[in-house]
Amino acid sequence: MKFFNILIFLLAFVANVQAAQFEARVLRVSDGDTITVIDSQNQRAKVRFLGIDAPEFKQSYGKASLESLRRQIYSAGNKVTVVYDRRDGFGRIVGKVLADDKDLNLEQIRRGMAWAFKRYFRDVAPSDRQKYIEAEEMARKEGKGLWSQNNPMPPWEWRRENRR
After folding, report:
1. pLDDT value at position 19?
2. Where are the beta strands (DSSP E) in the chain?
3. What pLDDT is recorded for position 13?
4. How far from chain centre, in Å, is Cα 153?
């Protein structure tokens, strides 16, 4: 009986965990999946896009990915909404970033400027997982962005090879 009560408590707790959301102004685009923002209380935060991994700046398509994200944010007046429920080991907020109600995480994948980062999909909403996978498949099929290359190196492999 004790186990059953603990299980009910944990399920109720998990069901009540909700994503936080805030509006912010983008101060800096670091790369194709990381931005620095300032919120209405003048608090700065670094935001890592959930469920995607963009090429590193020194990697092929790294600059193009950064510019793609920068243009999307600029066209939205540098205003974004960040939806998140955790921070990573570096203290960055990890979340979905919206601009003009458009999912920029998804848009980066659609444009061939990022991979769907399946390794961390457990934190991505199930409906978004499917969209991200389908967007990557379509970008690959159409040869968009980094998919115009024969065998683009995923950023997680590039980081592992260039760690020194």
Report:
1. 84
2. 20-31, 34-39, 44-49, 52-53, 79-87, 93-99, 102-103, 115-116
3. 40
4. 18
Candidates 21, 50, 20, 19; CA nearest to 33 is 50
- Which residue among 48, 110, 111, 136 is the active-site one? 48
Does this model's pTM top 0.85? My answer is yes
Of all residues in the chain, the percent with pLDDT exceeding 90 is 85
Catalytic residue among 25, 92, 163, 164: 92
Taking alpha carbons only, the member of 35, 46, 55 closest to residue 109 is: 55
Active site residue 92: yes
87 noted as active-site residue: no
pLDDT for residue 7 is more than 50: no
Predicted pLDDT at 74:
97
Distance from chain centroid for Cα 63? 17
Spell out the domains of the chain, with CATH numbers in brackets: 18-161 (2.40.50.90)
Which among 23, 25, 44, 56 is annotated as catalytic?
56
User: With bands split at pLDDT 50, 70 and 90, how would you rate the model's confidence at 1?
Assistant: low
Q: Is 48 a catalytic residue?
A: yes
